[in-house]
Every structure is written in C-alpha cells, then in structure tokens.
Amino acid sequence: MFARLRCRGRLDAEVDLDWNQFQKLVTHPFVQSAFIIVLGYLSGVVADLFGVRAIGRLVAKTRTKFDDKIVEECRRPIRTSCLLAAMWFAISFNDPLPQVTFLTEGLISSWAIVIWTRASFKISSLLITWLASVKKRFTAVTPRTIPAWDMTAHLLLTVITAYFFFLAWDFDVTGWLASAGIIGMAVGFGAKDTMANLFAGMGILADNTYKLGDFLLLDTGERGRVTDIGLRSTRLLTQDEMEIIVPNSAMATTKIINESGGPRECERIYIDVAVAYGSDVVAVREVLLSVAKATEGVLTHDPRRLPAVMFVAMGDFALQFKLLCFISLPEHQPIVIDRLNTGVYNALGEAEIEIPFPQHDVHLFQDKG
Question: Which of 39, 44, 64, 289 meets the CB 3.0–4.6 Å disulfide criterion with 82?
Fold first, then answer.
C-alpha cells in the first residue's frame, strides 16, 4: 500500500510539474507574441475569404469590370495589414526597450505605407480609366487626358506617402514643409518657363484642344500631324518628314487651325481661275467641273461634298472663278492643287478659252493749243 501511495504521489508531482511548465510556456511573452501574430495572420485570411471575396461576388454582378479589379487589388493589402497590426500589438505587448519599439514600429508602418501606396497607384489608374470610359458624364476625363490625370494622381499620392512616412519615423514635418515651400519658390522662379509649359500641357489635355493624329496649321505657317502631346511640348510631323517641337505655352496662346476637326477629316480646297471677258460662263463651269471630277484625290462620291464652281467677280482684266473641291486628308492639299492647276490650264487651252494677262491701255492725247 505504501508503494502505491508513493507512486501516486510521484505521478501527482509530475503532473503538477508538467502543468507548471505548460503555464510558464504559455505565459512566456515570446510565445504570446507568436500566438498574436498567428492570430493576426488567420484573421487576415478570414477577412479575405468571408469579407473581400464576398464583396467581390457582389460586384461581379455589375456590368463593368473595373470594380472587380479594384476589389482584387485590395485583397493582398488587407491580408498583410491584419498581419502587420498583429505584429504591432505583439511588440507593444512585450514592452521592449524604447529604441527597439521605435525601430520595429517604424519598419511596420513603412511596410504598411508601401503596400497601400502601391495598391492606391493601381486603384487610382483604374478609377481614372473607368471615368474616361463613362461618356457624356465626366467631360474633363477622356481617353486622351488619362496620362495627365494619372500623373497628377500619382504625384498627389507620392506627396501623401512621403508625409505619412515622415510621421512614421518621427520626422519634424513642419520643418520639412517650410523647407519645401522655400525650395519650391526658388525652383518656381528658376523654372517658370517649364512650369508654364507644364500647366499649359495639362490645360491642352483637359480642354481637348487637339488630339493625337490631328493635322494642325499654326499661325506661323507650319502644318503637320500631331505625333505626341507631352506635358512640356507638342510634336508635329510635317509633310517634309521633319518634326516640329512646339512648347505647350506657345500652343496655348497661338491661333491653331485644326484641319482634322469637324465631323470628318476631309477638307475643302479651292483654286482661282481667271478667263477673258467674252468667254462663255456656262462652258467655263463645265470645263472646271469636268477637270475636278477627273482629278485624282478629289471627293466625287459624297453628295454633300461634290466639286463646285463659283463666279466670284468681274475683275479689272478678267472674269474670276473659284473651283471648290473636297479632299479626304489635309496632307493631300499640295498635290491635289497641283493636279487641279495643271488640269485646268490644259482643259481651258483645249476648249480655246482665253486666260488673259493683266494689261493697261494707255491713251495719249496731243494738246492742240
């Protein structure tokens, strides 16, 4: 019997010893911190499975796919944020040295700022693209102005990220802002032309003054097709295969004729024709119209844009006509005008219709006195 009691006492002592060790293990700060971190990871998984995915199933029923992409971009940051929050709480639970607390909390905050900044960049681009796809609602946001809005959103997000990054590492934001203001003023005075081009470029994109592929005629005489609209300059490719780079500040203040504007890109051209007095006006019209219809590059199948002849004036030396024709592209203007002039000259000669030369008749009177 004494042996049984001795064995039972030994077993009880071992059980008490194991329980005490288990209590010490469970109440150990590092074990509790690890438990908190695991719990944070599991909460992130639960939030993803039952929260974000549930929202994703709801937005999947909408017509657009942009909301699906936005929800998808939020999944990873939400999971990581739950884990980072658990790590933050676990570190503060252990009450480490102030230096360790400052370093670890700064790293965790920076990590959270980075992942949410990356997600915000992608989400802002998706929102801008979605706004541009909604027609007749957000007139300032169009497919042509997406780069300007995207750059502006990213710049704003970068500034906000820098602000929170400074706060995470306990920097004096007020001093930085004051220094940035002084530096900004100095840079603004030194780079006023660049800033003028920048704001003019944003205005051109927002106002939709012209777009890529348009054929422009500047008041300085240059003609070319727009190949690039940057925030600093606009590039035109001329018919001589030369590129003209015009600062946006000049494009914003100059007079521009957009030859590609209107419902269609076609353009009307004209040539002046003079015939001698006494010519048959009906015959002249028939000759000019026949030349226009036979000239390559002239639109002749559109009933609204057929060639026409106008008798514009009875001049000092001749009857003056205008031959009006439409061409499909603005860059065809020089070659079509050359063909029309050649065809008109030859056709008038074959029809024996005189093209007069300017002349003056001088009459001399002799004074008999």
Answer: 44
Where in the chain are all domains bearing CATH 2.30.30.60?
209-258
How many whole angstroms separate alpha carbon 125 and alpha carbon 118? 11
Please give the pLDDT value at position 37: 79
CA distances to 174, 252, 290, 352 from 313, rounded to whole Å, are 75, 39, 22, 21
| CATH 3.30.70.100, the chain: domain bounds | 267-350
Q: Please name the CATH architecture into which domain 209-258 falls.
A: Roll (2.30)
The reported pLDDT for the residue numbered 43 is: 85
DSSP lists the bridge partners of residue 313 as 320
CB of 216 closer than 8 Å to CB of 236: yes
- CA 279, CA 205: separation in Å to the nearest integer? 54
SS3 325: strand
Show Cβ contacts of residue 72 under 8 Å, excluding neighbours closer than 6 positions: 56
Structurally, at CATH architecture level, domain 267-350 sits in 2-Layer Sandwich (3.30)
Q: How far is CA 5 from CA 1, 12, 195, in A?
A: 6, 10, 94
Please give the Cα distance from 204 to 206 (Å, whole number). Answer: 6
3-state helix, strand, coil in the chain (%, to 5): 60, 15, 25
Which residues does the chain have with pLDDT short of 50? 2, 5, 11, 15, 17
**For residue 50, what is the DSSP state?**
I
Helix (H) or strand (E) holding 73: helix 66-94
Residue carrying structure tokens 């008999």: 368
Please enumerate in sequence order all residues whose Cβ is within 8 A of that of 218, keeping only pairs 6 or more positions apart, or say none: 246, 254, 255, 256, 257
pLDDT of residue 5: 46
Phi, psi values for residue 227, rounded to 5°? -105, -20
